[in-house]
Q: What sequence folds into this?
């Protein structure tokens, strides 16, 4: 697979560097708003301050190579069967020399992108990807890794199997309670999410399927999210809780859109799809319509879909269809002179 590569300057010397050149792989899925920078922990310093400085420098170098990455995955351990990693969200509003990284969130797209970077040019393979900071576990099956767009089947059933959907509502909130005058559901199936129904905002499902559902709706969702963050005691600088607005289609599928770094997410984050699907199975939630054993969520008809199934009010399956990943580039960050 052809990749763009930047090479180390001949003037750089390993002998005078505090650590060697760092290889950064840039990968993405078809459901992500931007690429993910993938690094290996063994190449990073153990000291937190030094590691943060190195990550900042790596992202500057990656940006100079033409890749704007707002997400980072650090591979801690990798075998033929499992990848253990940590996800870092680059916080908005910080320049490239003072970037801060948030580690309390999950991003299924970035975890899968990191796995694509690890399995490139290997035969079709099954891998389990684990976020060691949060416990999110994704079982994946990668198709032909020699193609540009690697097909991916993803399953997160083990995380939720045998549990009741209502058990994921956040403590201190009801299945439906008002935030800033708007009915909402707060739950944490992956990331903490505020779920709002479009009909409660006088927004049609057709609006949600547009690439840009509009600035007025975006501003209202931002305001609701800020109120919910204060209720949960989360700092204003955090991207948590996240927020999604959803509505049922005539075909009985939930359409959902989310806000990412203050703007519309172009697709469906996996954590958002899981959260909205979970809320649809919770009686009295904002998007609960009628008792059902299965629910599907997507951003648009051609987008990925999250499927959630239950039996006797216990979750039996949670899977994602339509995913594909791509290894975009490999960038070498030169060793820094002492």
A:
């Amino acid at each position: 697979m052809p990749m763009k590569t930047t090479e180390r300057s001949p003037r750089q010397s390993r002998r005078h560097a505090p650590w060697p050149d760092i290889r950064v792989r840039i990968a993405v899925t078809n459901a992500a708003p931007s690429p993910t920078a993938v690094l290996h922990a063994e190449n990073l310093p153990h000291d937190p301050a030094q590691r943060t400085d190195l990550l900042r420098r790596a992202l500057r170098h990656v940006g100079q190579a033409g890749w704007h990455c707002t997400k980072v995955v650090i591979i801690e351990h990798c075998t033929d069967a499992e990848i253990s990693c940590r996800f870092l969200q680059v916080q908005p509003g910080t320049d490239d020399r003072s970037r801060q990284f948030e580690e309390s969130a999950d991003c299924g797209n970035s975890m899968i992108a990191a796995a694509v970077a690890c399995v490139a040019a290997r035969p079709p393979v099954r891998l389990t990807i684990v976020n060691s900071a949060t416990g999110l576990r994704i079982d994946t099956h990668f198709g032909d890794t020699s193609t540009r767009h690697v097909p991916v089947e993803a399953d997160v059933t083990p995380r939720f199997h045998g549990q009741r959907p209502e058990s994921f509502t956040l403590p201190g909130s009801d299945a439906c309670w008002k935030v800033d005058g708007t009915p909402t559901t707060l739950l944490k199936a992956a990331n903490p999410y505020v779920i709002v129904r479009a009909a409660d905002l006088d927004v049609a499902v057709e609006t949600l399927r547009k690439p840009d559902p509009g600035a007025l709706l975006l501003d209202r969702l931002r305001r609701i999210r800020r109120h919910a963050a204060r209720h949960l005691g989360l700092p204003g600088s955090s991207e948590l809780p996240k927020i999604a607005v959803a509505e049922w289609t005539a075909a009985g599928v939930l359409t959902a859109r989310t806000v990412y770094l203050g703007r519309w997410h172009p697709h469906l984050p996996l954590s958002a799809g899981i959260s909205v699907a979970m809320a649809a199975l919770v009686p009295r939630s904002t998007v609960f319509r009628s008792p059902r054993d299965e629910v599907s969520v997507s951003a648009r008809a051609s987008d990925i879909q999250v499927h959630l199934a239950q039996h006797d009010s216990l979750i039996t399956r949670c899977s994602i269809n339509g995913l594909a990943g791509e290894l975009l580039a490999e960038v070498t960050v030169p060793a820094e002179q002492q």
In short: The longest helix spans residues 215-232. Residues 1-17 have pLDDT under 50 and may be disordered. Helices lie at 48-64, 108-119, 157-160, 205-208, 215-232, 270-280.
